[in-house]
Amino acid sequence: MSDRDFMIELHCRNTRDDKQILTEFNDLRYSHAFFNRHGGEGSASFSTRNISFGVGDEAVVVRKNRELVKQSLQLDHLVSARQVHGDAVYCYAGELSGEDEVEGVDALITDIPGAGLMIQQADCQAILLFDPARPAIAAIHCGWRGSVAGIIGKTIARMAECFGTDPAHLRAAVSPSLGPCCAEFVNYQTELPAAFHRFQVKDTYFDFWDITRWQLQECGINREAIAIAGICTVCTPDYFSYRRACRNGNGRTGRNCSVIALHRT
User: By residue range, what is the domain housing residue 98?
Assistant: First the structure.
């Protein structure tokens, strides 16, 4: 089957012990997963599977939750970043270990088997890319600022630079995230470029799932090779949501995680 003819199927699996949504590309060379907030440890507003050290949760709890993620996907390493809603891309070559996080980047790429690239989000998108020809992978943290900054295109360009990736071979999966039902931008005329305005669904609301699909296709990825979960994190209490937390209180909440990894041979 050619990459152009390839159709991604979205498979959801919820278990009583560790509820999680898995998206499969039917390729045994890699795995990826979109984890919800269930099945880990936690207390107070971080119940239960918070994986971020930067939101005020107990570090020992976060470590346990990250270890559960590693065990679930049978990873050697879990690589993450201290995300800043920017457009910097980091190529992981095996030099990090333990709890090290890459400072100030929002996209990770690698071709090292057994290393899971992890995105932390609470309404932002995690965009996971797999290049079956190389093979190589990428994980992108993409909120609206990342969309405006063009982080998707910059990540794909970095994959081409580092691994020789041809965008036509890439397969993409987009995590549960802020849906068009809740993506209100009252200042959109100053925050969002004119090219985004055609994705306005009503009044001040925008469809960032469609914006991402458009940006991926503009980079050369085939539409049939893009899977979007289509689950709004604000509407669905199974996920941490910053916008929902702001509506209900002070915005304090945990972070979901999305992970992609190449399998060891």
Answer: 20-177+225-262
Distance CA 258, CA 245 (A): 20
23 vs 101: CA distance, rounded Å: 25
3-state SS of the chain is CCCCCCCCECCCCCCCCCCEEECECCCCCEEEEEECCCCCCCCHHHCCCCCCCCCCCCHHHHHHHHHHHHHHHCCCEEEEEECCCCCCEEECCCCCCCCCEEECCCEEEECCCCEEEEEEECCCEEEEEEECCCCEEEEEEECHHHHHHCHHHHHHHHHHHHHCCCHHHCEEEECCECCCCCCECCCHHHHCCHHHHHHEEECCEECHHHHHHHHHHHCCCCHHHEEECCCECCCCCCCCCHHHHHHHCCCCCCCEEEEEEECCC
- 14-64 per-position pLDDT tens digit: 433 444 555 556 688 898 999 999 888 887 668 889 999 999 999 999 999
In a domain? residue 193: no
Q: Burial, 100: exposed, middle or buried (Cβ in 10 Å; 0-12, 13-18, 19+)? A: exposed
Higher pLDDT pick, 9 / 129 = 129
Number of domains in the chain: 1
The domain spanning residue 159 has which CATH number? Answer: 3.60.140.10
Angle formed by the axes of helices 151-163 and 208-218, nearest 10°: 30
The separation between CA 175 and the C-alpha centre of its own chain, rounded to angstroms, equals 6
Instruction: Report the alpha-carbon distance of residue 150 to residue 87 in Å, rounded.
Output: 7
Which pTM value belongs to this model? 0.92
Query: What does the alpha-carbon distance between residue 53 and residue 251 come to, in Å, rounded to a whole number?
Result: 16
